[in-house]
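REVIEWER CHECKLIST
Item 1: Sequence provided? yes
Item 2: Single chain? yes
Item 3: Sequence as submitted:
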Amino acid sequence: MKRTFGAILTVLGIAGIIWGAYAFMMGGDGGVVGKYSAAVPFIVGLIFFFSGIGLIKTTRDRT
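Item 4: Structure as written out by the authors:
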């Protein structure tokens, strides 16, 4: 169960990082999100990504 949740967090983190980076690159050119407010999804994506990786690494398989 923890491994599945870790995988979901990792995928959501990757999506947040990509969206934040894309929003940052398009921020000043008529984008929906401003350049500095694009940092929020990027930071949340980083938190999700590293939390998911940590859950996957520290959870042991049952034998």
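Item 5: Key structural point noted by reviewer: The mean pLDDT is 84.
Item 6: Recommendation: ____
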